[in-house]
Amino acid sequence: MSLMVIVMSPDATADDVDAVVAAVESAGGEASVGRLSVAGGSGRTFIGVTGDLALIDALRIDEMRGVGRVRRVSTSYKLVSREHRTERSTVEVGGVTIGPGTFTLIAGPCAVESAAQTTEAAQIARSAGATMLRGGAFKPRTSPYAFQGLGEAGLKILADVRDRTGLPVVTEVLSVRDVELVASYADMLQIGTRSMQNFPLLQAVGAAGRPVLLKRGMMNTIEEWLMAAEYIARAGTLDIVLCERGIRTFEPATRNTLDIAAVPLAQHLSHLPVIVDPSHSGGRRDLVAPLSRAAVAAGADGVIIDVHPRPEQARCDGGQALTGPELLPLARQLDDLTTVLGRTTAAPRYRLAG
Amino acid sequence: MSLMVIVMSPDATADDVDAVVAAVESAGGEASVGRLSVAGGSGRTFIGVTGDLALIDALRIDEMRGVGRVRRVSTSYKLVSREHRTERSTVEVGGVTIGPGTFTLIAGPCAVESAAQTTEAAQIARSAGATMLRGGAFKPRTSPYAFQGLGEAGLKILADVRDRTGLPVVTEVLSVRDVELVASYADMLQIGTRSMQNFPLLQAVGAAGRPVLLKRGMMNTIEEWLMAAEYIARAGTLDIVLCERGIRTFEPATRNTLDIAAVPLAQHLSHLPVIVDPSHSGGRRDLVAPLSRAAVAAGADGVIIDVHPRPEQARCDGGQALTGPELLPLARQLDDLTTVLGRTTAAPRYRLAG
Amino acid sequence: MSLMVIVMSPDATADDVDAVVAAVESAGGEASVGRLSVAGGSGRTFIGVTGDLALIDALRIDEMRGVGRVRRVSTSYKLVSREHRTERSTVEVGGVTIGPGTFTLIAGPCAVESAAQTTEAAQIARSAGATMLRGGAFKPRTSPYAFQGLGEAGLKILADVRDRTGLPVVTEVLSVRDVELVASYADMLQIGTRSMQNFPLLQAVGAAGRPVLLKRGMMNTIEEWLMAAEYIARAGTLDIVLCERGIRTFEPATRNTLDIAAVPLAQHLSHLPVIVDPSHSGGRRDLVAPLSRAAVAAGADGVIIDVHPRPEQARCDGGQALTGPELLPLARQLDDLTTVLGRTTAAPRYRLAG
Amino acid sequence: MSLMVIVMSPDATADDVDAVVAAVESAGGEASVGRLSVAGGSGRTFIGVTGDLALIDALRIDEMRGVGRVRRVSTSYKLVSREHRTERSTVEVGGVTIGPGTFTLIAGPCAVESAAQTTEAAQIARSAGATMLRGGAFKPRTSPYAFQGLGEAGLKILADVRDRTGLPVVTEVLSVRDVELVASYADMLQIGTRSMQNFPLLQAVGAAGRPVLLKRGMMNTIEEWLMAAEYIARAGTLDIVLCERGIRTFEPATRNTLDIAAVPLAQHLSHLPVIVDPSHSGGRRDLVAPLSRAAVAAGADGVIIDVHPRPEQARCDGGQALTGPELLPLARQLDDLTTVLGRTTAAPRYRLAG
Whose CB has fewer CB within 10 Å in chain D, the N or C terminal residue? Predict the structure, then answer.
């Protein structure tokens, strides 16, 4: 469903209006004519249009005689919208819940490098009260000369660590080709920022029978993000968690600019849970704590944080990974903030932390 | 003082290097030559350069024979930097302190419309625990057909309300011509986002004998923001408070994108206090609370919030102004967060709030 | 005059609609109700609104019960619009015409450094067929430690060179304080990119009795640019030339991104002449030629190019200045392109070049 | 190969320097120490670093004691760089050459809708002198509710029209899964703007034995664009044509902002041909002509233009498609510009046009 408003120019004739209506209908749309009175003026006619987006796009309305301005008022997502489901949703991943009323801490290495490193990272995460483990086996790297991840060997390590720590695993899938493989090891499939508009991949993960973590494209609007979620939803699952991870701007001091307002906005437009990635947005270790605190305060349903036992030896983004001594006090602070804000933290955190 | 690093290309000859050094010195700079070994390669020569920014800019170094890449490593601000003053500064405005350890709430109408509206807004601010009053008498408006403010009449209203409520006043000055006038009424001079690089104005307010609230340009980097502060500092005062108010990005859902990371970053680079404007960044009433909470959590030294007794009648940005019933619970929440984060709120708040 | 379209939500009641209409009228606006049929649905009511921008801004319409979306359709500039004047305008500066049908080459140093340097630069400009001289006496510099220009001494040099070469002079004015002074020496007043929204300055230059060169703000939209021109026009002159000089984006390879599409767009929306600054947009000497050619091809009414007899000694932006041997072949190429595109170059060029 | 320059702070000790060198070497990198004299100061030590990007990334150098600033100077692409191949390359596609000295016009429908529509569009293209046919069978659409293309049926239509018109076909591939299929029909594989960082797809098309048209990501830097090309090159082919199609900025008047400077810059950094898409960058029919002319003038090796026999009925981006009567005069104008700029147009154009 699409909705356009065409404002005719002051000198538009009745024939001009009829021509626009005819064009709209020729494209299978519906048109209805209205009139705006203009302060001390002769007023303007406008035309409301509904129909198929692709066809409406093709109308040369803005070039038709007598047409002033054309404005679109559309909703291109439905299943993930608040109109479709008024209550905010909770997504369950291997016994862990993400959603309203709770706060979920997800932590782990940016990239899985070895069983030892992943195990140590998981222990750090668990002892800090994290209830889920993150870790990359397939890494999208801007340069072909950068470390690309361990692939299936990395998935095996993650599954093994999950079995020993009880932490459900979320990991990125880069290609339709790998969806089945990754789904056979992971508890949750992650769509990375560079894949947010990889539509065949969105459809494949939507049909894979696993909950999905959808990172916002660093170059995409909130509306495009929700439309990407709609692709996943239409393919078969509404167990989708949105993750704000920063957008690209002119500011060079940070890798990306965390769009903190996107958290309440996405929660306002969609019923899906929204978490924040403070590690990849800032790209700096010293920003992880303040950005994590800001995320809780803005209402995020959780955060996903890079940790590494020895960041100086990390093969990917070590510059932003926290160590145990850095994560623990932050996790405690996030608990305090969560409590002050009247939310509880996901119960499993304490059991696991014991 | 400027610092550049010139990396010569692999095939650069000794003559090429000498030519670059000669060019640097001809422009009054100093050069020193070093060498980088390259893994399994023949290595590269590079040249460090120091001197006057303007002159260094003019060197055609990037086009000289044998030159590979040119990188600048400069500090263009000194007085406002942490190198100049290691401890974070506290700025006092009419008995109110803004700086580390405290949290300052500034509130008031976007524009001064009348004595009654300003008084009511000040009462809302005060009863919520605000310790300073904001209000615009000279309004920079994108359209010449929009309300431009009451001018000196507005300043008189602000001063009168200040005298009756005890709340120091911060108000914007738009032109060098008006600095003396505004300074005669206001306790703190505000440089708005569109004036951040109005250099003559920065110099004039720096010499006006009043503390200055410097909003970040919506189109400016953090480094440019600090250089603008340096203009003010060199003109005579270090009583400068920085205000992050959102930057311009591709995201259309908010008026601007609040760069929450800019708060810890500016505090890391500069000793000046940093506050946040949650009203103008989001441009939406429903975002003021989450963005204010995020500001406290990120470490901001205060927030400046638009309030209006009757937003629906506001002549400027009413869509983002809070009413008393909206500001009070938020102020309480900000107090709670401040306490949890181990900071106290500016003492006067309680006296005034009583 | 403003125009808004309010789309009510599907479940809006007649009372909701009445309440919106009442709110609009309470703010002095006018409202008229229409209805959109929605494919296979129950349809939607919408309300057209007109009135004062500032007041309309203040309506809390988006939060009223039953309101779906709010869209504004406004023209905030009139005098500079094509609706006000259908034919494209020609601006005359000291006998030189800028506008449709011709192509004007403006050249000169970024900053006036000395009589000798300015004279040499003017000779380069003239021999290349330039019909106007550019040169900065008051320089807006991001860093307070950079060269700030010669001030009035620079203006005297420009006026003297103008008298000896016959080239009218365009130079930047930074402050309301200096408008009269600069106007007493220059033939055309330049508003720089950082001053595009310095509204008091726009009003002052508009009343100064000189034609104005209005550079686009590096982070301003085309609409904001035209509203800035409207400020100048309302203050007293329509002798305004718009100058596209690049906008700020995420791309680091160039200082700014030349928005080449802004040339035909601004000419489509406004009757004012539009020229391009290929020197400051790219910030690289090697881009001046291709960007200048692109400007002509896109329909620009002229270009303004930095030239310097000895760029390696320039005190400002030497890295982008062309020398005589670089400008001459480019100017010839621009002439060829102009001819192929069916336009003539400003007649004076040949007389002066003789 | 990577290259970093670490500038130590003024108070760095010899131990600090040794610690940094040790850290670099612990990560398998190589370090060499140099010293910069500072005007009237005690000077600064810096350290040059080379090694593996991923490992260097992980060094916590910026946080080590005594470290001032860290700067990277890297080349993350080699095969596509001018350093690898000094001469600009020419890519051949089904007998048509794209590269220096010539100008190639590619035209066709945004989306293949039917045999009739595609045939008519090809005839328009051919009669205008186009030497290649574009057309989408797999369409990446932001909304799941928009027309997604005809898939293989569309590929069959394109191949059939190619056989009847002699125009080689370029069409987009969206998924690794479809690469073989698309390569079996198309003469050239297109990577769309949303797929520029779909690394598995880049590798797959690089190995498919067809030349590749690589569109720039709408939010990617020129350097990232060249690294994406490097992925393709490493997978097996250097027959890559780069296509600038506009980047995402804050300007709402155009769909994207055509980065015209990217044409000469990409040609300067890489030996690959660079063409421009004036249709998708502006997203407006009225901008296609000025942007196409600007592309030729800036040195582009070709343009790729949307055409449609009946744009008002197009199912995708009809608002920007040209008709025959619009394309022909533009093509003639582009020929004239090409000639004036001393380049010839691809020979086949005339034979086909006959």
Answer: C
